[in-house]
Amino acid sequence: MRIVQISSEAVPFAKTGGLADVAGALSKALAEQGHEVTLILPLYSRFLAKNGFEIQPVGDGFEIPLGNHRVWIQLKRAQMPGSSVNVVFVDCPEFFDRGGLYQDPVTKADYADNAERFMTFCRAALEAVARLQLKPDVIHAHDWQTGLVMVLLEAQFRDWVPNLRRTAAIFTLHNMAFQGAYPAEMMPLTGLGWEYFTWTRMECWNRVNLLKTGIIFADQLSTVSPTYSREIQSPEFGHGLDGVLQDRSADLTGILNGIDPHEWSPTNDPHLPARYDFDSIGTGKATCKRTLQEQLNLPVRGEVPLLSMVSRMTWQKGFDLIGACAGRLLERDVQLVFLGNGQPEYEDLCRHLASAYPDKVRTIIGYDEALSHRIEAGSDMFLMPSKFEPCGLNQMYSMAYGTPPIVRATGGLADSVVSATQETLHAGTATGFVFHEHHPDRLWEQLDWALRLFADQLTWRGIQRAGMSRDWSWNRSAREYIALYEKALSRRAT
Length: 494
What we know:
The protein is an alpha/beta fold.
């Protein structure tokens, strides 16, 4: 197939979260299975400049409409490292040459013109498809930033570009909490008439809702885990769009994300002081733990359980539960490491714990890719007590690195982690620790259970190896996406 992926971020070019991991790794996995893949991204020039990617202009620049204004676009091209994936960048400096992707890195506030930025990107992406004569069988767009692609394709570009008339349109929902909802006066910027501003199309609570737009106009919908596909059809997780998703439930498929084994494998990870596999986990992981303790100036003690959390520091990620359990946890002989940033109150919580327990806790505010790998490898347990988690990737990284995760049973966490019970321990299938109710006592029960099992290293090694033996690669997920593409194409053909 000829497949076009459209995303607002993708590794290794620009990243704020899991969306970038998915867009980059899925594109590579599809290409590895023999498909012709083009990935279209905004050109965040400051991010690319740091990494020295070679990019070349493609064709002449052109203008696209944005309401009554015209925006200048230059397309540029690169090759994804280690892959046959072609990458096309939408270069629009006035919108994308900034310090952050979606937010001002200093104020942490969303850019006031995000609607204009990503409406422009959506139209420019489809222009790129047409001008470069990509002739895709499938256009696969990701999250609210690309929701407008779905309606522009259906309402305009299928008529304007004959070779798009049978192209299947797939839209993936990564996180229902972020919908790209903007005031009604933004509607003219879409280039569509007011007849599209209705509750059956793009309007939601008198706002232009770009996530809803993608849901309504795509041929097929996917989300990033089977459990999340069911959860988002409920008021608790649907964030106001549960009814829309119920109406399209027959076209909604949950496909669990994978991880890129070229980027995340303890057997070939260049960031680790020692590499290890299923058989050498005992010595290799001990070296990684010792080195991490030394780097973070923690007491170097192999016997003490080292727990970690690499995460955006937000309410979604369960930091309220961490705060409620921290006192009980730190009464024990443990070490605790935080890496991430986010809401000021949770950054302050992690700083306070590091200050109050200088021999036990380290907090690094910000993000460091290499350090995140070393934390996964050097930790004994990984914390993910999320209130909701569409898929999650860190729990998969953790299991692949022999670091059993402690998670709440939601979204992809429920689909990927097998909780340690007497039955699963006996069967050798336990890969981590799972609690259900979003309550500190339920988290503490699993923390306490994990600490007790850690004392039995033979049992603990079994949990580690069960997680490491699972196939977390994108090969499985990519095959499921191909089946979804074929389903959408068969409907387009009728």
